[in-house]
Structure formats: structure tokens, C-alpha cells
């Protein structure tokens, strides 16, 4: 046999013998240092690559946002009914603010350069196709010199904008450009010349929009009566949804007075915070209700409704008219009588408790089939979901009656814990809510003194 055969008999090949003859020499200190340097260098390169990729991603996202804003401005300008060629030209220009290069429409809060004083709002409501058109005149004061008017709008199609000065110079001020910035739900009007501090200006805006099905802004709801589906439209502006119904300074700190006019088919009736001051009828079967001027308040307390409800009425000793509006069958069955009765008692109780008179001439309670909350304390027109204000005394349990009572007491208490009574600087909505929760138990204890609170 050859060498290979002898090796195989012993179970070991030549390669194994060669491996046994190899002497493994340990690494020197210099070799260890070299390996560590390579590991550190590789780790540093990985970190540097990660930083570069992150910086590129941030740069691309910022560029994308800028392009999106410019595109939205161009679309808003192209949709304008007047000066279409000029708006299209301005829409293609990047939105650069002439005031130190700032862009206040990108900020979370409105700039503190303007302060509204009064809104004159006129709406036409079309219930057959659930749309509405409007015109708002806003009187505002300039606090700091500026060329920009920044308002809140959301889902509104702005048609025409005019700005007037209180100076003796007649005619509208020249508008350089205007556009909608959707990320912050604002509409920006850039004037050709600056507005001066301590002077009053007016802006006129015409617009139109849909009465949405979602339960925010100016929305629609429905119910069935005698096999027929009927529709109504009502508002829910708290906390920041007035901008869905009309252009406005939609932050609680911007308080103003409001005068509302609602035009609709005569088969409907309309409600708002204040009583109807005048009503006019057209030959085409439409009616326009002009409501009295409201006290100074925030936009989220403004409210109106267009419906075909009926009501029951009560009058307090001080002459405040209380009406509960609901479906005709609910009113006829007396489902709202309990809430109407305790509301009358509560108004008198809270007036005596706070030593502050109820500030409005009337209070309407509106029971709607659907609502995003249990209720909303709009001044003079509190809106409730039906389940929290209507009950059948012969069927409803005591616990259900107590739950309904607490909701009504809470909203009536809010007629005091709002802008009418609380200080001007107090803008924390949740703080007002907390105080109302505290005093609702006092009101409930007044209604049920033997109830262990």
C-alpha cells in the first residue's frame, strides 16, 4: 500500500497531519489595536451615514410642505371669481411675507395684529340640497401695523373679498394677493399697503359651503314623523368649528358682538342666540329672520338652527322666556316638560346664588336627534341630544331622570360660567368646564335636597 492507504487505516488523512504540525501564534498588541481602530472607524462611518440620510429626509419633507402650500395657494387663486389672471399669477409665487420674511399663516395661533369688534353675518340656507351661501362683514381694529389679514376658514369656498378703511378715502383697499392655507385652516389676504394701529377697518367676504353630515360646524340631522323623513340643520362650534360655517377669528380670546340673519324656506323656522328682531317674507315663499345683536362673546358660543320643530314655553318671574324645541310628536307627548320645568327653577336659583342676573332676554333648549356631545351651552340656544333632555315620566327610571337632570343643570350653570360673567383674560375652556361641574352639584342639590350628593 502507499502512504495514503496507511494513513487512512489509522483514521487520519495527510491534511490532518499537516494541521497538527501548524503552530498557531497569538496576536500581538499592535494587531489588537489595528482591529479596534477598524471597528471604531466602521461605527463612526455608520453614524455619519445615518445623520446624512436624516438631514436629506428632513430637507425633502420641508420642500414638499412648501410645494404643497404653494400649490394650495395657486388653486385658491385660480378658483377666485374676480381677477382670475392676477390670482393665478400670484398663486405661482411662493408665499413670502413682506414683514421681516415671516409667514404668520404657518403658526398655530393667529397673529395678534388685528382684533375683531363686530360680525354682521347673513346666510341663505338651502335644505333641499344641503348647501348654504353667506356674506360676512367683520369690523376689526388694527393693533400693530400689518399688511396681512389672517382668518380661519375650513371647507368654505371664498368667492369675493373686499377690505375697507375707516378713513375718509372712499373705495376698497387694493389686495395684492389672497390664498387659503389648508394645513392651519386659515385664509390670508395680503394688502398693497399697511393698515395703521388704532384704526378700524372692515372686511367683506362672500362664500358658500355644504351643510355637512358630520356632527361639527353647520351640520344636518334628521328624524321620521308619520313615516316621513324630515331634516334640520344646526351648529356645533365648540371648540374650533365656527370656521366651518363662516370666516372668522376662531379663537376664544377674540371676542366680538354678532348680528345674524338667516334666510330659508317658510316651511322651516330659524333660531339663534338672540330673539328675532325683524322678519321679512319674499314672494317666492322664503323668509328672512334678523336676530338681535348679541353680547360680546367668543365665536364658539355663537349658534343657529333651521328646523321644523314645535315648542313649549315657560316664563320666569324676571320675564325670561324659556322655550324647549323638539320633534312635534315629542312636544305633544310632553317628553320635554320635565326639562322645561327644572330649567325655569334653575334660572331663578342661579341668579340668587351668584347675585348676577341672567344676561339674555330668552333661553331656548333645542333637542336634536344626533349631536357630538350630550349638550352644548350656547348662550340663549343650548343644544341637547334627545336622550339627554326628553323623557317619558311614566316609563323612565329614576336613575335616567337623575342623569338627565345633571346634564340640564350643567348647561344652565354654563350660562353664568362663560364670557358674560368670567373675566376677559380667562380663556381656559376646560377651567370653565371644571367650575360648571362643581356648581352643577349645587344646582342638583337645590332640585333634590334630600338626595345624598
From TrEMBL:
SUPFAM superfamilies: Leukotriene A4 hydrolase N-terminal domain, Metalloproteases ('zincins'), catalytic domain
Region (Disordered): 79-103
Record domain Peptidase M1 membrane alanine aminopeptidase: where: 338-453
tRNA processing found in the keyword field: no
Extent of Basic and acidic residues compositional bias: 87-99
Superkingdom, natural source: Eukaryota
The UniProt record lists the keyword Lipid biosynthesis: no
Keywords: Hydrolase, Membrane, Metal-binding, Metalloprotease, Protease, Transmembrane, Transmembrane helix, Zinc
Transmembrane segments annotated in the record for this chain: 39-62
Occurrences of domain Aminopeptidase N-like N-terminal (ranges): 116-301
Ranges in a coiled coil: none
CDD domains documented for this protein: M1_APN-Q_like
Cofactor or coenzyme needed: Zn(2+)
InterPro entries cross-referenced by the UniProt entry: Aminopeptidase_N-like_N, Aminopeptidase_N-like_N_sf, M1_APN-typ, Peptidase_M1, Peptidase_M1_aminopeptidases, Peptidase_M1_dom, Peptidase_M4/M1_CTD_sf
Similarity field: Belongs to the peptidase M1 family.
Protein name: Thyrotropin-releasing hormone-degrading ectoenzyme
Organism encoding this protein: Cirrhinus molitorella
Amino acid at each position: 500500500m502507499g502512504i495514503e492507504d496507511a494513513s487512512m487505516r489509522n483514521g487520519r488523512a495527510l491534511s490532518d497531519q499537516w494541521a497538527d504540525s501548524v503552530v498557531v501564534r497569538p496576536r500581538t498588541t499592535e494587531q489588537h489595536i489595528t482591529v479596534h481602530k477598524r471597528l471604531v472607524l466602521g461605527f463612526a462611518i455608520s453614524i455619519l451615514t445615518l445623520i446624512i440620510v436624516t438631514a436629506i429626509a428632513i430637507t425633502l419633507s420641508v420642500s414638499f410642505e412648501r410645494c404643497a402650500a404653494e400649490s394650495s395657494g395657486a388653486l385658491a387663486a385660480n378658483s377666485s371669481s374676480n381677477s382670475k389672471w392676477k390670482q393665478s399669477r400670484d398663486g405661482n409665487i411662493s408665499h413670502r411675507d413682506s414683514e421681516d420674511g415671516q409667514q404668520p399663516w404657518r403658526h398655530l395661533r393667529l397673529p395678534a395684529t388685528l382684533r375683531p369688534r363686530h360680525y354682521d353675518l347673513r346666510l341663505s340656507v338651502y335644505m333641499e340640497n344641503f348647501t348654504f351661501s353667506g356674506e360676512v362683514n367683520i369690523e376689526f381694529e388694527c393693533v400693530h401695523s400689518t399688511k396681512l389679514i389672517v382668518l380661519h376658514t375650513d371647507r368654505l369656498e371664498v368667492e369675493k373679498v373686499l377690505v375697507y378703511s375707516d378713513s375718509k378715502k372712499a373705495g376698497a383697499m387694493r389686495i395684492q394677493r389672497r390664498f387659503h392655507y389648508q394645513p392651519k385652516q386659515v385664509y390670508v389676504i395680503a394688502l398693497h399697503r399697511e393698515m395703521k394701529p388704532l384704526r378700524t377697518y372692515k372686511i367683506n367676504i362672500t362664500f358658500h359651503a355644504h351643510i355637512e353630515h358630520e356632527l361639527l360646524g353647520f351640520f344636518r340631522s334628521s328624524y321620521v314623523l308619520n313615516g316621513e323623513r324630515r331634516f334640520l340643520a344646526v351648529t356645533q362650534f365648540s371648540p374650533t368649528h365656527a370656521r366651518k360655517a363662516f370666516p372668522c377669528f376662531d379663537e376664544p380670546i377674540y371676542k366680538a358682538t354678532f348680528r345674524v340673519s338667516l334666510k330659508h324656506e317658510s316651511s322651516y323656522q330659524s333660531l339663534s342666540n338672540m330673539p328675532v328682531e325683524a322678519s321679512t317674507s319674499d314672494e317666492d315663499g322664503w323668509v328672512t329672520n334678523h336676530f338681535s345683536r348679541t353680547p360680546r362673546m367668543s365665536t364658539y358660543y355663537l349658534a343657529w338652527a333651521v328646523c321644523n320643530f314645535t315648542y313649549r314655553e315657560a316664563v320666569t318671574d324676571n320675564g325670561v322666556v324659556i322655550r324647549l324645541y323638539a320633534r312635534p310628536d315629542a312636544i305633544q307627548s310632553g317628553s320635554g316638560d320635565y326639562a322645561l320645568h327644572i330649567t325655569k327653577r334653575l334660572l331663578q336659583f342661579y341668579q340668587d346664588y351668584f347675585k348676577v342676573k341672567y344676561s339674555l332676554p330668552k333661553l331656548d333648549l333645542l333637542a336634536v336627534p344626533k349631536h357630538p356631545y350630550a349638550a352644548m351651552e350656547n348662550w340663549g340656544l343650548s343644544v341637547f341630544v334627545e336622550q339627554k333632555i326628553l323623557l317619558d315620566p311614566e316609563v323612565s327610571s329614576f336613575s335616567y331622570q337623575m342623569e338627565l337632570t345633571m346634564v340640564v343643570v350643567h348647561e344652565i350653570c354654563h350660562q353664568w360660567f362663560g364670557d358674560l360673567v368670567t373675566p376677559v383674560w380667562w380663556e381656559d375652556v376646560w377651567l370653565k368646564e371644571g367650575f360648571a361641574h362643581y356648581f352643577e352639584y349645587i344646582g342638583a342639590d337645590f332640585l333634590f335636597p334630600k338626595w345624598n350628593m
